[in-house]
Each structure stands twice: as C-alpha cells, then as structure tokens.
Design a protein that fits this description.
InterPro entries: Methyltranfer_dom (IPR025714), SAM-dependent_MTases_sf (IPR029063). Pathway: Antibiotic biosynthesis; aclacinomycin biosynthesis; Antibiotic biosynthesis; carminomycin biosynthesis; Antibiotic biosynthesis; daunorubicin biosynthesis; Antibiotic biosynthesis; rhodomycin biosynthesis. It holds the Pfam family Methyltransf_31. This protein is of the alpha/beta class and 287 residues long. It has one domain: Vaccinia Virus protein VP39 (Rossmann fold, 3-Layer(aba) Sandwich). The chain contains 10 helices and 8 strands. α5 crosses α7.
C-alpha cells in the first residue's frame, strides 16, 4: 500500500470512530497524554504543537500549562477528530487552543513557530517517521523540545497491545489482515528503530536532536468492564483488525477477549492493566 492510500485508510478509521474515541468507559490515552505533557513540561506563554492530536489527550493538558499567553495547536489527518476537538475547545472557552486538519508527516507550518512538539502514539505510525522527526526540527524554535510515546515492543507479543492480549488473539485470525498489517510486517517496520533504546536515540540524533531520554514506564489502563474494552477497541487502531474479519471470526474474537478479560479481572470490578509505554523526550540540537 502506498503512502497516500495508507493515510486515507487511517483517516477513514478515525473519522468513523471520532465521536466515541476515548469516550467509551476506558481510561488510557488520557492518563498517557497527561504524563507525556508532564515530561515535556511546557510553561506559561510557550507555543505547543500536538501532531495526531486525536481528541486532545495531550493538547488540553498542554493548553492548561501554557495558559492564555501561550498557544496550543492540534493537528490531525481525520476531519471528524478535528471537529470533535473544536467542539471541546468551544465548550471549554479556550482562546489559546485551535485544531486543524493537517498531515502530520508534512505539516505546512512556519519555521520556528513552536517551543514544544508532542506526539501521543501518533508519530510512530507515520509512513516515514524518521523523516518527519527531521522536518520537525525546523518547526521548533532554538532549544525547542519534542516528546512522544510508543508502545514498548516485546518479542512474541501482539504488536501495540499489552502482553496480556497475545494469548487471547488466535494466530488464525491474522490471515484476514492485509499484508502490511500483519504482525511480522509491523515488527519489521517499527522495531527497526523503536524497539532498541539505543537505535531510537541514534535516530533522533541523526534527525537533529540532543539530550535524548528514553523512559519506559507503565500507564494504567482501566476499563469499566470487558465489554467496554471491546467496544473501545473498535474506536482506535485495532479497528483495522475488526474491519478485516468476517462476521464469524469477529464474534469469536469478541467472545475470546470478553472471557479473557473477565478472567483477568477476577470476575468483578473494572479491568485494570498496566500497559508498558515508552516516553521519549529530546531537544533540538541548535540553540
């Protein structure tokens, strides 16, 4: 699949799920976004760019810190996501925040216009993420900072899901995925520079950053129930798996996940999973 087709597919997935994205009784992107902003540490008056902003899990915490003298811009490829963020901006009455439809791989924005660039589970999915990281240095002012998140890739686990899910997803279901979404293809694509912290740091340094810090720590995912988690999984990247499964296989996977998560929680109360997340911060080499 070429880059344009890939982006159309991704935009379509998130357009379809925008109204329910991160709003179905599962907490994950919101606490991860807050922690990302905490590590990026924007201060009053600074200018923040959030690439692939989704529903604003990082955008709104950053806007609170920069305050009315600062500015926070969220960009996303999915128009429906941007529309939802716009509604939230209006509801909160935040004059320092805006959202635009834009390709995060090649954002058409002025050079040196931002002090902080954020990417919550977004930069890593760009067709040419290392190239985009290099271009981002031009958007950042001298000494500007970047902060983004990635899954912690582990051999033998299903990519992008906590290790607890690997035994719940039978390998036979994966034959229904397009070749570019097969786990082996994903591993080749992402692990080439993300799995090893040293490779990741070297990639950033080649792109024009210094003071690279890689921090792996868990983010608590909390779902009101197994059913809520399955519903939530239809609103994020896993939607691509659901869309490619025939109806019988979709029902089989739904039952497997629901039963497995029920066992994991002990049969009552919320489902709580500590999800390993990689937080990466760095500073532009100049300035």
């Amino acid at each position: 699949m070429d880059s344009s087709a890939y982006k159309r597919q991704v935009a379509g997935v998130f357009d379809d799920s925008a109204a329910r994205y991160d709003r179905t009784g599962v907490e994950f992107f919101t606490p991860m976004g807050r922690r990302l902003v905490e590590l990026a540490a924007p201060v009053a008056g600074e200018r923040v760019l959030d690439v692939g902003c989704g529903r604003g899990a990082s955008l709104f915490p950053a806007a609170e810190l920069v305050g009315p003298r600062g500015h926070a811009l969220g960009i996303d490829l999915a128009p429906a996501m941007v529309e939802e963020v716009g509604k939230e901006i209006a509801a909160r009455g935040l004059s320092q925040v805006e959202a635009r439809v834009m390709d995060a791989e090649n954002p058409e924005l002025p050079a040196g216009a931002f002090d902080v660039l954020l990417g919550g589970y977004s930069i890593i999915f760009l067709p040419d993420a290392p190239g985009a990281l290099s271009r981002y240095t031009e958007l950042l002012a001298d000494g500007g900072r970047i902060a983004f998140t990635s899954p912690v890739f582990r051999a033998g686990t299903f990519p992008f899901l906590p290790p607890e899910f690997t035994p719940l997803i039978p390998s036979s279901l994966l034959e229904h995925l397009p070749p570019e979404w097969q786990p082996e293809a994903l591993v080749r694509r992402f692990n080439s520079w993300l799995e090893d912290a040293g490779d990741l740091a070297a990639t950033l340094e080649r792109a024009g950053y210094r003071e690279v810090r890689v921090l792996d720590e868990p983010v608590r995912m909390t779902a009101e129930s197994p059913e809520r988690w399955v519903e939530w999984s239809h609103t994020q990247g896993m939607r691509l798996l659901w869309q490619n499964l025939p109806a019988p296989q979709r029902e089989d996977l739904r039952e497997r996940l629901t039963e497995g998560l029920d066992r994991l929680r002990g049969g009552s109360g919320p489902v709580v999973i500590e999800v390993p997340v990689r937080f990466v911060t760095a500073r532009v080499a100049r300035g």
